[in-house]
Amino acid sequence: MSANIKIGVLASGGGTNLQSLIDNCEAGNIDGAIAVVISDVPQAGCLERARDHGIDAVHVPVAKTGTPQWEQDNGRIIEVLQAHGVDLVAMAGYMRKITPRLVQTFPGAAINIHPALLPSFPGTHGQRDANDYGVKLAGVTVHFADEEFDSGPIIIQGAVPVLSGDTEDSLRDRILKVEHKVYPQAVQWFAQGRLTISGRRVLLDGEPVAGSQELVWPPMEMV
Ligand code: GRF
To answer: pTM value?
Structure first.
């Protein structure tokens, strides 16, 4: 991949992940720029954030998943992405399922961020489900998109402890801070052409990435 990729962002909400991508592009930490932001929600904060930074902001209404209209609406999304010459599609809080055609149109070039340590807790309530389950470590996953929901080869994960007394909201806030760090890193690795997919594994510079330290929570008392 050449330097300075064009990124198309799909988002449905306030867009703090979009903001972290914008900020890192503007700071030169990502070799690329956001060419367009597309949202299924007309008043979404992500569209406002895009406009504030002079980025094309496009509302594309999306019909119920699985319907012929949904296929057509996704076709419109593909058209907008292609019209902007997008190299990478980054879903950032996009709450709709994308069509297989969208994944096929951008092979190995569509990624998603999910606020849980996949494959645990897929779906729209990752933080709540993790908190309710009583896990000790929660976190975030950035992965290549495939034709399933919250699936696809994992690029990077970040873990945070779950504290006693955590609520869905407090856990969401702790995870979100890590989201804002790992998503720009994943995008930069993509922009640098350093990621390859090997089956379910994503290799960085052709090597499986080794973890740098153990993450244990609560802290161990025995050595
Ligand atoms: C994030 O937690 C993201 O992982 C999830 O939806 C949330 C979107 O937040 N899929 P924001 O719109 O980026 O602030």
So the answer is: 0.95
Which of ligand 1's atoms lies nearest the C-alpha of 92? 13
Residue 41 Cβ contacting ligand 1 at under 6 Å: no
Cβ-count burial 169-183 (b if 16+ within 10 Å, e if not): eebbebbbebbbebb
Strand order in the sheet with 195-198: 56-59, 32-39, 5-11, 88-91, 110-114, 137-144, 154-161, 201-204, 195-198
Q: Which of 141, 143, 176, 182 to mutate to test the pocket of ligand 1 (most atoms within 8 A of CB)?
A: 176
Q: Output the CA 93–ligand 1 centroid distance in Å.
A: 4
Domains of the chain: 5-208 (3.40.50.170)
Mean pLDDT, each 10-residue run in order, the chain (223 residues): 83 98 98 98 98 98 97 98 98 96 97 98 97 97 93 96 96 98 97 96 86 81 81
